[in-house]
Amino acid sequence: MKVCIAASGGGHLTEILQVKKAWSGMRHYFISDVRNNSKELAKSEKVYFFECPRRNPISFLKNFFQSLKILLKEKPDIIVSTGADTALSTCVLGKLLGKKLVFIESYCRVSEASLSGKICYKIADVFFVQWKENLKFFPNARFAGGVF
91-115: per-residue pLDDT in tens? Predict the structure, then answer.
């Protein structure tokens, strides 16, 4: 089993690292964008740094092709993600390539759904929310409680 952990740097990466027991003992790698915590993680883990789209079409295309290249190279069995934009192409392309997707909606999303959550909810094999209030946006999600 090989796991791709896809999360934008900053808070999304901090959140996903709280559940690292989920891939403990498995071959894994990370995709993120360049921020302080992702650079620090790269000192001890395999991290691919992708373009952060920030809703820019050119940056999105760069991210899309970076995602495709690494998915074809690494061939993960499963993708685990907290979003956001840096990770979205990996999640969507991974599903198109037949990979399993586990998505964890961000802890900071209480009163509205994230854009990456709205997209990944439709394709995720398992979708977790950290607040019961999120079940109104994602009725088939699993409530898991907060990661912190």
Answer: 999 999 999 999 999 999 999 999 9
Dihedral Cα 70, 94, 26, 82, nearest 10 deg: 100
Q: 2-143 sits in which CATH class?
A: alpha beta
φ, ψ for residue 64 (rounded to 5)? -60, -50
Query: Crossing angle, helix 85-96 and helix 57-74, to 10 degrees?
Result: 50
Cα separation, 12 vs 109, in Å, equals 11
Average pLDDT over residues 26-51: 98
The predicted-structure confidence for 121-143, as pLDDT tens digits, reads as follows 999 999 999 999 999 999 999 99
- State how far the Cα of 148 lies from the Cα of 145, in Å rounded to an integer: 9
Which residue type is seen at 3?
Answer: V
Q: Give the start-to-end residue ranges of the domains of the chain.
A: 2-143
Q: How far apart are CA 76 and CA 78, in angstroms?
A: 6
Name 49's bridge partners.
32
